[in-house]
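Problem: given the chain below (245 residues), write out its structure.
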Amino acid sequence: MVYLGVGLGGMLGSLLRYLVSLGTSDILHNGFPIGTLIANCGGSLFLGWFTARIIARRKLNPVLSATIGTGLTGSFTTFSTFSIETLVMVENGTIWMAIFYVHISAVGGLILAAAGYKLGAGLGRGGITMIGFVLVALGGMAGALSRFVIQMITGQSVLPVATLTVNLLGSFLLGWIVGQGIQGNLYLFAATGFMGAFTTFSTLNVDLVKLINSRENKAVVVYVASTYIGGLLSAAAGLIIGRLL
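Solution.
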């Protein structure tokens, strides 16, 4: 029965991934594999939750657990397609897109799997609650939109001013939040959600790659120094001010 369940789950998972791929094919027209990204990140979130909430607590019989976990979710996500799509982007000359794809897939997938696992393990046991999970999501949405607005306002220049601005400002504000001793749901929304999404590590790295490829060596040095040294100083300043006020 386990083999049959895994096989049926695999069939359903593959079909669902195919449908996601078809449904998202017209969203972007630059060759970015948004469908695979959605499948891999969404599957990571669900499997993290399913593992902690269902499998670890033995809430389903082994056949159903294997069907949903190994079969359906394992087939809904795909590493081989991710690898080939990355290689195709490199061969087509869109190296920056390939780097972004690898970065967001690896980091995003890991974060979502951890979030799902934490959510599954914490519900009903004094850990993260559904309200907290929603607040993190809402804060993340607000933070990402705020970062996008700043990017639109500042425009483009050799030095990535927008990314530098959000990272320095976000470091200061997060330092202030920690210094104030804010906890609970407000911390989840403001710090984990908003500030986590308002600042960006992935864009920083992609910006650096683009500067290096453009041989903007002075801009690379200024950008790295301003970001890391300025970020630490901003966080320290925010922390001190938060504790004093």
